[in-house]
Amino acid sequence: MAALIAFYDANVLYPAELRNFLMHLALTGLFRAKWSAAVHEEWISNLLKNRPDLTREKLERTRQLMDKATLDALVEGYEDLIPTLSLPDENDRHVVAAAIRGQAQVIVTMNLKDFPSEVLQQYEIEALHPDEFILQLIDLAPDVVMDAAEAHRRSLKNPPKSIEEFLASLEAQGLPKSVAALRTLFQRTTDIQH
Question: Which of 18, 89, 184, 193 places its Cα 20 to 30 Å from the Cα of 9?
Fold first, then answer.
């Protein structure tokens, strides 16, 4: 079992493309992914607000599949920590509380400013943008991340995506550094096959 524990903030689970890639990465065993029911509720309710074409039932199914796919991912019993925390946005305290209770070393979030390092370092937690987080995983185990990326790409059926379309969709999620590294890995694999 991997030693690194990464807590996913709601904003990285909101976009389906990023959520799916982070889930494929979570299944590699390179780290343990964690989240909470409150995080689930946050990304689901925001999606329902912005995407009238989606139903709660469909998103709840996604939530259940996520909870089932990853061992011990759902953090519970952290609510007592929330009032003890001080953050720029009080609404983010539940994320840090759950990360602490889940023994995470990393919070994967798009909103780094909401998780100041001076607050997090006392709990030995670091906030990382998903681009930095994925880049660190690529540095750690390039072939494993490459396999996860290819598994994710191959799982896309409606519509299927070429490698370049897949990488462009990840880049649109704010992952330029990770995509540059993945592009090199995909290129290397393609060169080997020819």
Answer: 184
Strand runs (DSSP E) across 37-132, as ranges?
A: 74-75, 106-108, 126-128
- CA distances to 75, 88, 148, 165 from 80, in Å: 13, 19, 36, 45
Alpha carbon distance 172, 111 (integer Å): 16
Q: Are residues 107 and 160 in the same domain?
A: no
HSE of 174, CA atoms in CB hemisphere, 13 A: 15
Cβ pair 151, 190 in contact under 8 A: no
Residue 99: count of CB within 10 angstroms of its CB = 32
Domain shared by 149 and 117, yes or no: no
Asked whether the predicted pLDDT for residue 152 surpasses 80, the reply is: yes
Indicate whether this model's pTM tops 0.90.
yes
The count of structural domains within the chain is 2
Contacts of 83 (CB under 8 A, 6+ apart): 93
